[in-house]
C-alpha cells in the first residue's frame, strides 16, 4: 500500500473515531436523561455503555497519534476499558435483578424509541465503515473498536425492542431484562479485554 493511501486511510479512520465520539457524547446525555425521566434502567444502561464507547474511541485515537505502539501501553489501555466494562456489568446486573424483584416499572419513552432507532442505523453504518478502514490499515485496535461499534448497534436494537414491547404490550420487565442483557454483554467485553 502506498504511503499516501495509508495517510488517507488514517485520516478517514480519525474522522470516523471523532464522529463516533461526538455521537456517543450526545447519546450519553440523551439516553441517560430520557431514561431517568421514564424510569428506564435500559435507557440509562445504554447511556452508560456509550460513555465507555467514548473512552474506547479515545484510546484508538491515542494509538493512531503515536508513531509507535508500546505493548505496555496497549495492555494498560485494554485493562482500563475492561475494568470500566466490568464495573458497568456489575452495576447493571445488580440493578436489573433489583428492578425485577421489586417490580420497578418504566414508563413508555417514545423519544427513547426514536433515538435508539436512529442510533442503531448510525452505529451499524459506522461499524461497517470502520471495519473496512481497519482491514485496509491492518490495525487490530481499530478493528476491535469497529467490533465494539457494531456491538453498540445491536445493543441499541435490543434496548429499542424492549422499549417497544413495554410501550405496546405493557411488559414492564422487558426494560430490566434489556438492561441485564447490556450487563451481560459488558461482562463479556470485560473478560475479553482483561484476558486479551
Gist of the model:
It contains 6 helices and no strands. The chain is an all-alpha fold and 196 residues long.
Share in β-strands: under 5%
- Shape category: globular
Order of helices and strands: HHHHHH
Helical/strand content category:
mainly alpha
State the total count of DSSP E strands. Answer: 0
Q: The biggest beta sheet, please?
A: none
Counted by DSSP, the helix tally is: 6
Rg from C-alpha positions? Answer: 17 Å
Intertermini distance: 29 Å
Query: Poorly predicted ranges (pLDDT <50, ≥5 residues)?
Result: none
Question: Mean of residue pLDDT?
Answer: 87
Helix content: over 70%
What does it look like?
With 196 residues, the protein is mainly alpha-helical. Helix content is 89%, strand content 0%. The chain is built from six helices and no strands. Helix 1 runs antiparallel to helix 4. It is globular. 39% of the residues are buried.
Give keywords.
196 residues; mainly alpha; 0% strand
Strand and helix map with partners:
Blueprint: H1 3-38, H2 41-65, H3 71-102, H4 110-137, H5 140-169, H6 173-195
Helix pairs in contact: 1-2, 1-4, 2-3, 2-5, 2-6, 3-6, 4-5, 5-6
